[in-house]
Structures are given as C-alpha cells and as structure tokens.
C-alpha cells in the first residue's frame, strides 16, 4: 500500500470560461469540484492506475466532509484527522487559450491536539505502507519542522518517504532525509548557497544533495520533462510532446508515478518513465490530479530516459 499525507487538503475547483477579465463579470462555462490538495491528487492518480492507496491528513468543516465523501465516491480509501477548522478551497481559472490562474486559500489553523492526533494516526498507517508521500503546503499553526517529525515517524515504521513541498517546509523537512524530493531550481540554489548558472551546475547541485543522504531528487523542467539524480547518477527525462488541456496537478501525477514504481521495486529508469507518463497524462485531462490509465500506458513508450553521468 501507498499512503499519501495532505496536511492542507482542499476542494480543488476548476472554472473553465472564455476569458477572465479583471473588474468585470465573467460567466463560467464548466465547473469541476474535486477532493484536492497535492497529496490527495497523488492518491487519486495512484488509485486510477489500480494500485492500493490510502489518503490521510487534516480535514474539517463542510469542505472536509465534501473531500471525504468525494474520496469515498472515487473508491479511494481515506482516514483523516477531523479538525475544528474548515478545509480550504483552491480555485483554478482556465480561459479558452489554456491560460490558468490559481487562487489558493491558506487553509485552517491546526491546534496542538490535532497535530498530536496526526502523529498517532500516522505510525500504524506507515507500518502497513511501502511508500508514504507527504505533499503540499503546511496550514497555519503547524511548525515548519512538522514534516521532519512525521517523516521520522514513517521511517521508523520502515516506510520509504517522499516529500513534495516547497520553501522552508521543504528545507526543514529535508533534514529528516526523505528518500525522494522534488525541489525547484531556486530551492537547489538556496541549499547550495549560490546561484545556478546552467544545467551542469544544477546537475552538480543535485548530486551534492544526494551526498547529504537524499537518494532520489527530481527537478521539473515543465513540459520538457525533468532532471533527476539517483544515488550519484544523473538522468535527463524527456516528456512526450502533447497539447496540454490543464497542467494543474501534473507535478502531483509525477509523484504518483514515482511512488507506484518505487513501491513495486522498479529500477529508477522505469520509475522516472512512469512518473513522466503520469504527469503528461494529467495535462491531457480538464480535471486537476486526474489521468486516464490508457493515456499513461500509451505515453510510457514515448518517454525517453537518458543517463547523463
Ligand atoms: O499541484 C496543484 C495543486 O495540487 C492544486 O490542486 C491545489 O490544491 C494546490 O496544488 C495546493 O498546493 P499547496 O502547495 O498549497 O498545498
């Protein structure tokens, strides 16, 4: 089983409309409302590929109820810590030119006893999991060191840990040495303490991060693919060219593919292939954090993984 942890769960609403005009009334053509937040997207993309997964995290209020009901309807096992506050809404406004504007609410404030309930819930879930994937921003009230704490709990239960977050939550979480992280170029630069001039410098920086005890690092290059460093070896991963419909959630779908491959013990090249095919398949659908399994299967053959030393 794979467990995903979403501390700042959301209802992901996607509004499709002809054009977004600031200061004017815009009528929406189509609305999708899904259980979301990064880790829940990861869980859905895993479930859609027929792999056992359970989603946990914090959920509260009527939005929390919507998220849990939606997961049940989608056949995704879940076990959330119920909180006093109201889970957030994240809005993605897509115009007819495919331009996306995201409005992400900060989310609820988490109380001390709710964090304690999360610590208690995670240990037995992690004991049953091959991979535990932590994804997304931290809600208010949660210290920046909380991911490191939870990662320690999951690792002590023998799980392989993924961490996909950003900024200080990533910097502090990475101190617990997760197996997989997905920083952006600026975050790698921040770690190194100097700017990154070119791809070679990025590669060297990622290899230095491997040496600090994080075995698997992937940096997204957007629609072109990604650069990965695995146990001191670098890979350039070329994504298939597609006409993207909605790229929101593609990073989460990438994590889902990587988690499936890792849980199944596939070689890293195959994990990267599955990650990239899943991320690309996500961009082909109008919904965030969603893939058609046939798209993933077809795209798998079109991903090129190149070992670059
Ligand atoms: O990756 C896209 C997305 O997952 C949206 O679906 C939205 O829920 C958002 O990210 C949340 O990101 P955050 O980093 O605030 O947890």
From TrEMBL:
So what does this one do? Catalyzes the ATP-dependent phosphorylation of fructose-l-phosphate to fructose-l,6-bisphosphate.
State the EC number(s). Answer: 2.7.1.144
Keyword presence, ATP-binding: yes
Q: Which protein family is it in?
A: Belongs to the carbohydrate kinase PfkB family. LacC subfamily.
Matching entries from PROSITE patterns are given as: PFKB_KINASES_1 (PS00583)
Protein name as it appears in the record: Tagatose-6-phosphate kinase
Q: Which PANTHER family match?
A: 1-PHOSPHOFRUCTOKINASE, 1-PHOSPHOFRUCTOKINASE-RELATED
Question: Which pathway or pathways does this protein act in?
Answer: Carbohydrate metabolism; D-tagatose 6-phosphate degradation; D-glyceraldehyde 3-phosphate and glycerone phosphate from D-tagatose 6-phosphate: step 1/2
Gene Ontology MF terms in the entry:
1-phosphofructokinase activity
Assigned keywords, A-Z = ATP-binding, Kinase, Lactose metabolism, Nucleotide-binding, Transferase
> Where would I find the Carbohydrate kinase PfkB domain in this sequence?
8-289
Q: Which InterPro entries match?
A: 1-PFruKinase (IPR022463), Carboh/pur_kinase_PfkB_CS (IPR002173), PfkB_dom (IPR011611), Ribokinase-like (IPR029056), Tagatose/fructose_Pkinase (IPR017583)
Note the Pfam families from the entry. Answer: PfkB
Species annotation: Paenibacillus oleatilyticus
């Amino acid at each position: 089983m794979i467990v995903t942890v979403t501390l700042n769960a959301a209802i992901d609403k996607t509004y499709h409309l002809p054009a977004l005009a600031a200061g004017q009334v815009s009528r929406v053509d189509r609305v999708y409302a899904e259980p979301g937040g990064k880790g829940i997207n990861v869980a859905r993309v895993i479930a859609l590929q027929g792999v056992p997964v359970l989603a946990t995290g914090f959920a509260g209020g009527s939005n929390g109820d919507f998220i849990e009901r939606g997961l049940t309807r989608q056949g995704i096992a879940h076990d959330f810590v119920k909180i006093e506050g109201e889970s957030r809404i994240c809005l993605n406004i897509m115009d007819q030119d495919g331009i996306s504007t995201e409005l992400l609410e900060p989310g609820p404030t988490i109380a001390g006893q709710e964090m304690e309930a999360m610590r208690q819930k995670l240990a037995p879930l992690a004991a049953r999991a091959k991979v535990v994937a932590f994804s997304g921003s931290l809600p208010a009230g949660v210290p920046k060191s909380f991911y490191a704490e939870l990662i320690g709990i999951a690792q002590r239960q023998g799980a392989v840990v993924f961490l996909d977050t950003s900024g200080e939550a990533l910097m502090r979480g990475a101190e617990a040495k997760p197996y997989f992280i997905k920083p952006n170029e600026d975050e790698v630069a921040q770690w190194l303490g100097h700017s990154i001039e070119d791809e070679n410098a990025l590669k060297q920086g990622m290899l230095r991060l491997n040496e600090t005890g994080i075995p698997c690092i992937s940096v997204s290059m957007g629609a072109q693919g990604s650069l990965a460093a695995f146990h001191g070896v670098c890979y350039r991963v070329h994504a298939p060219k597609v006409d993207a419909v909605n790229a929101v959630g593609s990073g989460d779908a990438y994590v889902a593919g990587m988690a499936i491959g890792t849980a199944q013990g596939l070689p890293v090249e195959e994990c990267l292939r599955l990650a990239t095919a899943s991320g690309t398949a996500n961009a082909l659908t109008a919904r965030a954090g969603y893939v058609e399994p046939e798209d993933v299967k077809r795209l798998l053959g079109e991903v090129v993984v190149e070992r670059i030393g």
